[in-house]
Structures are given as C-alpha cells and as structure tokens.
Amino acid sequence: MFVLVLNQNNIVQDGLNNKLLYKFPNSINLKDKYIAVSSISMFYSWFNITSAQNNNVLTYTWTSGATKTTYTITIPDGLYEISDINFYCQFVMQQNGTYWIVSGGDYAYPFELLVNPKRYAIQLNTYLLPTSTPSGGTIAPAGWPTVACNSEVTFPAFFNAIVGYSAGFVSNGNSANGYSPPAPSYANNYVAKLSNGTISYLSNLAPQVQPNNNVLFSLSNINNPYSQPSSIIYSLNPSVNAGEQITERPPNFMWNKMLDGTYSQLLLTLLGTNLQPLTINDPNMTILLTIRDKDEGFLVSK
Questions:
Q1: How many Cα neighbours within 13 Å face the side chain of 82?
Q2: Is pTM, for the whole model, over 0.70?
Q3: Cis peptide before 229 (omega within 30 of 0)
Q4: CB 199 within 8 A of CB 193
Q5: Would the pLDDT of 298 be above 60?
Q6: Greatest C-alpha distance within the chain
Q7: 3-state class of 170 per DSSP?
Q8: Rounded CA gap, 139 and 131, in Å?
C-alpha cells in the first residue's frame, strides 16, 4: 500500500482549481491495483449563485403614479444563504429608490425573502405600496402609485430552483388591494393575504439553495461499469458553513479497481452534482489517495 499526496502544487493552472494532476517520478505499471480516497482537507469555497449557472437574476416592479417599472436584480457570483440574497435585494432596492421609511426610522421594502423552516420552504412576502406617505414616515424616492398595489416579483428559470418556486413564477400585483388568493393545492404555491395587503407565498418545490451540495471526485484510470460517469470514486458532502475548512477521513475506504496499464500520471477532477467541473475558489487543499495491491485485502481505516 502507498499513499499519494495531492495539494495545491498539483492543481492544473487554469484558474478553476478543480483539477489536480499527480505525476509519478517514473512510469509505473498499475496491474491489479485498487485506489481509494483516504483523507480530504479543503475549504467550502464553491459558489451556489453564478452568472455561468444563469441562476443569479430575479425581477420586481414598482409603480410610480400610473407607470409600472420592472427592475432587474443581478446577484454577483457568490456563496449565499437566503438571508444574504434578501440583504442584497434590499441593497438594490435602496439604489433604485424603491423603498420608504416608516415611523421610527425603519426602512420598508416592497418584498422580502426568508426561510420558513417549519414548512421546509422559502417564503416570499410582498407589501402593499401606499399611495401617500405614511404618518410619521418618509416619501419613497421613486414616488407612490396612484392606486395602491404590490410589487410583482418574478423568479426566472434557474433562480427559481434556488428558492423552490416554479420557473417564471410571478407574484400578484394586488391592484387596489383586491386580490383573493386561490385555495392551496400541490400544484400551486400556498398563498395567504392579510387585510393590509401583505401577501405571503411559500415555495412548492424543495429549495436548492446550494445546487452543488456534493462534490464528486472523478479519477482517470478508473472504469466502474456500474457508475455513470465510470470514473467517480468518492462523494464529499460538506458539513461546515460556507468558508470553513472541510476535514474528512472516511471511516471505511471505498476501493476502486484501477485499469491495468502503465501510467505516468493520474488526474483528479472535482465535479458538481450536475457532473460539470466545479470552480473551487480556494486552492488550499490536501487530498490523500491510497493505492493497494489486489492481495493486500480490504483495509479499514481507524
């Protein structure tokens, strides 16, 4: 049995930090060999929202007078929780002047996103835009609507999966506070409305806040006929918060038969759950691979 150490010195320098190339000192004959991941140390640094995944855009409306304007929120590439997405939306709404200040100095926004853990859902709340400045408050920089209404929030394709709504979901505009929610069903989002015009929606699909919640380890020189792709040797599920260090040592090695042949190198690629290479932002990692002979028996780590 022998161990291969892969770290940032083995990373292929293409800016993605998802390929590690191990070059043997000399060409080596690998016949009747098995390989397993024996240790992983890396940082949880791959983004869940990126322009490349096209899951970074949502829209909302604001009505000033009789003119309805649609604003697009483009979220910068990053690793976000729902609260982070909500904070960024509020930041953009401030930049657009689509907010007002209520009595007491608190900012009010046309919508918000929050986690509803009891329903395992993401909740969207939209608020009735008044037609005049509330008592003790401050006028909205973007102006008030002529007729009270709610913003129409849209979740386009791909972003919708993050929050668990159907692609193209649009919240109701609630003109003159006249909207009556439909009866809840499995096909529709559960909707509740208060008399003051606040409308709450619950996602009807499981939110995929982190689309790549597992990292698949794909290794060259492997041929597993029962797996697709046939090169997968391990799956890493981070159990730490974003930005923290992942340290994993499998309690049992999962041995994979290597293709017989003479090799000068091995290439390890880190894939997302969509089987596409992940972009790993922090190259600081150490991955140990253990190779054993066929007659060594299956080793169990302690």
A1: 20
A2: yes
A3: yes
A4: yes
A5: no
A6: 82
A7: strand
A8: 10
